[in-house]
Amino acid sequence: MKRLLLLFTLCISVLLVNCGDDDGPVIEEVVGTVFQGTAANGFEACGWLVDINGEPFLPNVLNSQFQQEGLSVFMKVEFLEERSTCSTANIDPKRLRIEQIRVTN
After folding, report:
1. Is the dihedral of CA 38, 92, 41, 62 positive or negative?
2. Which of the residues in the chain have pLDDT under 50?
3. How many helices (H) and strands (E) does the chain have?
4. Which long-range contacts (CB under 8 A, 24 or more apart) does 82-85 make?
5. What are phi and psi of 64, to 5 degrees?
6. Whose CA is closest to 101, among 69, 81, 78?
7. Are 80 and 74 spatial neighbours (Cβ–Cβ below 8 Å)?
8. pLDDT of residue 34
């Protein structure tokens, strides 16, 4: 009986550890400025980028209605670990995934 209780307790412990919180993507709210890489030295091959706190980021997708030079946008984004290799500058822009985006007021 003790073995059965021990085995049951062990199984429940393993299940609780494996069914913990989901480590899903971290979504952050940020404000950025859209700019075209062709107009920025070193980013000519990058297409449209977003400057966030002085750092360039390359979105996986930027809807055409937001592809406007100098447009200030509020976004909910997931910062990705990967970097783009589109830059000829010393900084390879990090990638980001835009979940929501709107023009700031």
Report:
1. positive
2. 6
3. 1, 5
4. 84/46, 84/58
5. -60, -30
6. 78
7. no
8. 97
From CA 55, how far away is CA 87, in angstroms rounded?
13
Output the CA angle 23-24-25, nearest 5 degrees: 125
Element holding 90 (H helix, E strand) = none
Place of tokens 């929501």: 100
pTM metric for this prediction: 0.75
Q: Would residue 48 be called left, alpha or beta, if left means φ above 0 and alpha means ψ between -120 and 50 degrees?
A: beta
How far is C-alpha 72 from the chain's CA centre? Answer: 18
**In angstroms, rounded to a whole number, what is the distance separating the alpha carbons of residues 67 and 83?**
21
Confidence at residue 91, expressed as pLDDT on a 0 to 100 scale: 82
Q: Identify the pLDDT of residue 23.
A: 76
CA 34 to chain centroid, in Å, comes to: 16
pLDDT value, residue 104: 94
> How far is 26 from 28, CA to CA, in rounded Å?
6
CA–CA separation, 49 vs 69, rounded Å?
Answer: 10
